[in-house]
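Dig into these lines:

——
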Amino acid sequence: MDQLEMDGGFDGDVHNEEYFYIHGNDVYSTQSLLASLGVKQEKSVYKNSSNDFVRWPFSAGEFFEAVSSAPLEGSDLEALLQEGDKIELEKINSEIKGYKDSASTVENQDRIKELRARKKELLSKAAVRAGSSDVSIYYKTFVQINDSKMVEEKLPQFKDVRWPYKEQMPYFAAGLEDFAAAVARGEPTAITGGPCFFGEHEVDMVWTLKDGSKKVYDFTTRRRSAGDKISLEAEFTKQNAREVLDVSFESHKSLLTTEEYDSVLYLFELAHATNSALTLPIVDASYQKYLDAMLEPLSIELRVRARKNFRKMAKPIIDMYRELFEFFKQKYPDVKCEIMTGEDRELLPLYYRKREEYIEKPSTKRIISGIKEKIESVKDYITLPALPFYFWGIKNILEVDYLGETDSFWKCRKMHKGVMNLSALLYPIKMSADGWRTIFSTELQYKEYIERKDYGKR
């Protein structure tokens, strides 16, 4: 997720060590968003939604907008535009017309799509102000907030899905109708998604310096705030490369959280319900790429040792996910499925080889993050949703993942447009027992871990 800031709870010198922790975003609900956007619930598509749904708390960045379901054509809506929006619309229409008049429509099709999307947004706001239709809430313009009934209307097989809090949770959806149509036609379909490797406060990255002191960072591959262009760890390494004696890791993770368990359960339940294949990527390789880039200023000897320390720390966590995957494979023997980790010697090279032509497209290079330490990891995150296409050639894919993957979903869909159809059913990470942070972001005592003996009881 975005817009991170320093945690005020544990920042200082303790036994000659310094600790740095970060936490997530503001907490919203569908009800609070409607109010902040100036929309009455009875004037929205959520007018018949349950109180549990509209009040469900979730953490996200401030990227919400109200969108009218009314037709967005005709001068009647344009007449409702405010003066500034009218001027902007005139510029949009003029620019689009310029491309058409100069016969350069094809060369500028991406720009034209952006302009038309902005035009739709302007007209939608006019319809919202007029109160002429029901209103939906969109996140980052790509995914619409749905309750479970709305999801069932778009994807009928969702009625057969069983997972915790199904009726209460908000879902952020895009393209569900397209995926449902492919299922109805009997075409090959696939489900993909899965957990982050570990959450905040679960793995410490420890720098041992030549003076005997230590610096300890929470290793979640994150920035201090949305405005930072580099991570705290990367900046520290650059400034203190000559003083670093060792880089090691301390894992506090001996169990999976209920959130991580559920994220795999969702995949198998939907794959079973829709007769789809399934891919589960475990992203330890992406974390390692971030580590490699971050430690580049250090000597080769230090980097090799740090990599070995990382793999040693990562192995028990990978094993927990493999065990969970095998548990669900036995529970859903009809589901064709693959798990891919950074230890894989067959699927991982296949994935890298198959994605290469899409990564190298000029249009893809424009949407890859410019943050040096994150570039290789970002390449993973925006191509992992395409695993079923790379592995089996399946073109109809539903990504079932965290809300924080909205950007990577959109980028993956854009870079594979015309060769595969990517839809999304995203969900918020459940709030933790601390009442204000997610299970991912909170401290260990609030994580809500699940014992192996309790697998299957959720």
Remarks:
- The chain has a mean pLDDT of 87.
- The chain is about 40% helix and 20% strand.
